[in-house]
Each structure stands twice: as structure tokens, then as C-alpha cells.
Amino acid sequence: MTNYNPKSQLKVGGKMSEEGVNKVGLRLANAVIIAVSLFGISAIITAIGCILK
After folding, report:
1. For residue 14, what are the CA distances in angstroms to 17, 30, 43?
2. In the 8-state DSSP scheme, what is residue 17?
3. How far is CA 2 from CA 6, 8, 30, 45, in A?
4. Tens of pLDDT along the chain (53 residues)?
């Protein structure tokens, strides 16, 4: 393996606005809801498949 040691680092300064933070939080919450829904549906389909087997 190769060690990566950059000679210069990029530092990003600044703060997000409250509106930006709200948008990011809302998108993250929506993504989690979608992921949980899909996992739940797949678990139900798997359970039905095992019952009918």
C-alpha cells in the first residue's frame, strides 16, 4: 500500500446558513425514511417467501 501525504491541504472556511442546514437535514431525513421503508418491504417479501416455501 502507498501512503498518501499531501504537501498542501485545502481548508474550507465559512459557515452554512440556517436555511442550508435545514435543507440538508430534511434531505437526510427523507433518505433515511426511504431506506427504512425499502428495508421493511424487503423483509416482508422475504417473510412471505419463507412462509409460502
Report:
1. 10, 26, 43
2. -
3. 12, 18, 38, 45
4. 678 777 777 676 677 788 888 899 999 999 999 999 999 999 999 999 999 98
